[in-house]
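Researcher: Next entry in the queue.
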Amino acid sequence: MAFINERGSASFLQTPAWADVKSEWRGESIGFFDGATLTGVGLILYRQLPKLKRYLAYLPEGPVLDWSRTDVADHLKALATHAKRSKAFAVRIGPWLTHRRWLPDTIKTAIADENVTALSQVTPDETTLVGTRLRNTLLHGGWVTNESAHGFAAGQPMFNFQLPLRHADGTQKTEAELLSGMNQLWRRNIKKAAKLGVTVTRGTRADLARFHEIYLETAARDGFTGRSLAYFEKMWDALNAEDPDRMRVYLSEHEGDLVAATTMVRVGEHAWYSYGASTTAKREVRGSNAIQWQMIRDANEAGCAVYDLRGITEGVGANDPEIGLIQFKVGTGGEAVAYIGEWDLAINKVLYKAFDLYLKRR
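Model: Structure for this entry, 362 residues:
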């Protein structure tokens, strides 16, 4: 964690504690060295193939490296060598690196254009040179990526939504500036929630049960399979054992009724809205807006550079099933970012092909 703390932040999926959360995988924390100098770290999660002592070595949103280094290719070769010694048939990485960025006005224009159905059809406001260089390095090194995996199906989402909390000069934004960056609907809903007496409080570990109750309601309403309460308790215990303020739970209530609940995770200067839930009843009191606004303010007060609303799909067409999600998030005044994506390096090509076919059938 010392290396991550010096960097300012890294994905919470690369912290040593995440191995305790994903106990169905075998976790290993590794370091990269240039001589005696530590140049990077990573959390490898090993998943065994059925009936064979061969493993997929997966680094979700990792490893943690300075991707602008000139010796990135050497680091990746060292990773592959280590994975091979650990009987991995393939390595999967997901560098936590923004490659493309779309600002709020660009996103809104794309949503309004009936001829545009995906963000990737629109020229991004920024394409990072370090992202382009890394992509070329990976291609030349024999790594492969699924360019079509732009949704939630394949590992960690490629497209995410983030709200910058700092100005370009590094100074923290004021609450008034954050509010002014939101659209009129968001500001109106925040004001309405306050007027109706909605309160937002930080909960304790015991309140995860209350969060989980309406989380399951949300899962049933939105058609996804929810995680167990035990999973969230394990996540709380593992992350907060590493840092007592790493994971929080928030409760939004109206006249004694729980109307929304969320979890937030913070590593250094980066805060994530990780899970959210809301009731079907009392949606008109805007508890979800109130709880997001409280988390944004808390992240800002903690000195974070980014409040991360996590994954989106890139679909912006009127009939896209996830269009409501990006419309909700763009109202915060944030921006869409595309990471470099997840990349695989086959060590044993026969086993990797069999594994790939198995995933596609599943």
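Model: Confidence is low (pLDDT under 50) at residues 149-153.
Researcher: Noted, moving on.
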